[in-house]
Write a structure and sequence with these properties.
This protein starts with a strand and ends with a helix. It is built from six helices and 21 strands. The strands form four sheets. It has a seven-stranded antiparallel sheet, with no helix packed on it. Strands 13-20-17-18-15-14-21 form a seven-stranded mixed β-barrel. It is an alpha+beta fold. The chain has helices spanning about 35-45, 170-175, 195-200, 270-275, 290-305, 310; strands at about 1-10, 15, 55-60, 60-65, 70-75, 80-85, 85, 95, 100-105, 110-115, 120, 150-155, 180-185, 205-210, 215-220, 235, 240, 250, 260, 265, 285-290. A hairpin with a 5-residue loop joins strand 17 and strand 18 (about 250). The chain is elongated and about 65 Å long. Helix content is about 15%, strand content about 30%.
Length: about 325
């Protein structure tokens, strides 16, 4: 059995895949990678399927030992990775010899880095997914973030190191943006014309109250036309809901599945990965697109992610 040993867990490292979808009516949010694009790229670099489980590291990476060796790739934010004390190149597959130690420090860019391991991280699936839902303690490795001394089973690497490197075109196309494209939310018309304009014209700052459940934003108040209350209803990933004080909250992968705050907008599917790379104090803006444009942008992104010719140099 091939294993990975956690020598230092970092700030918040967890096992993630693309999430468990379709359980919202049961009160289970999808979880999964905060930056699904980077997870998919890390997996593709080591020859895994896009759905394989990997490690998601947040803000501070940690150290990991591979007693039997492995083939690994890093994607997402730059955490200044080293292998046995030597700088490790990201966005390419790397061979780790038996006993090798991979160390990652504090983020230099973005919020999250993904460690793809050939053969994937082996944990028992829960509701069809290996992802960790940290808030509820569901899935992943014992339903929690990794701790010092944890030993995880990993797959056996292929005998040959994959000869691939993320292309410059792919690096540019999947560079996270701080301009998030949105469609109108289900209660968009509840808001004052001035508030609708403010949403699209003003910057918002990510506060310290930001995690996998949601990101509270600091910015101008978004007022309703008339004071009203609503019955709780289902909410979607990326919804921009507004509290009675007029402040916005951007719902994320461990969101509650129902809520009673009006939603002024929703981040489009093609930009959800950008949310996963936002850090406290980052400044963001919103840009409105139509539902048809959002659908087309999603289709184009998925086509690029599935294209060998586009991804790899």
């Amino acid at each position: 059995m091939n294993t990975l040993v956690v020598a230092r867990p970092g700030l918040q490292t967890s096992v993630q895949d693309l999430g468990r979808h379709g359980y919202g009516p049961m009160g289970v949010s999808p979880s999964g990678a905060a930056d699904a694009v980077s997870l998919r790229l890390a997996n593709r670099l080591v020859g895994n399927s896009a759905t394989a489980a990997a490690l998601e590291m947040t803000l501070l990476g940690g150290s990991y030992v591979f007693p039997e060796g492995a083939v690994v790739a890093l994607a997402g934010a730059d955490f200044g990775a080293t292998l046995n004390g030597r700088p490790l190149e990201t966005d390419v597959p790397n061979a780790v010899m038996p006993g090798g130690k991979l160390s990652l420090g504090q983020t230099r860019t973005g919020a999250r880095c993904y460690l793809g391991i050939a053969g994937g991280v082996r944990v028992a699936p829960v509701l069809g997914s290996a992802s960790t839902h940290l808030l509820s303690g569901l899935g992943g490795f014992n339903g929690r973030a990794l701790q010092k001394g944890d030993v995880l089973e990993i797959g056996a690497p292929a005998k040959r190191l994959p000869r691939r490197k993320l292309s410059n075109k792919a690096r540019t196309a999947f560079q996270p943006s701080k301009i998030l494209r949105v469609t109108e939310g289900p209660q968009f018309d509840w808001f004052l014309d001035a508030a609708q304009g403010t949403l699209l014209q003003s910057p918002f700052r990510v506060t310290e109250e930001a995690d996998r459940m949601g990101l509270r934003l600091e910015g101008p108040a978004l007022g309703l036309r008339t004071a009203k209350e609503m019955i709780s209803e289902g909410v979607s990933l990326g919804a921009v809901q507004v509290t009675p004080s007029g402040q916005a909250i951007l719902l994320f992968v461990e969101q509650q599945t129902a809520g009673g705050y009006p939603k002024i907008a929703n981040v489009i599917g093609a930009d959800l990965f950008c949310i996963g790379q936002l850090r406290p104090r980052d400044e963001i803006r919103f840009e409105r697109v139509t539902f048809a444009e959002a659908r087309q942008l999603w289709i184009e992104q998925q086509q690029l992610l599935n294209s060998e010719e586009f991804l790899f140099a």
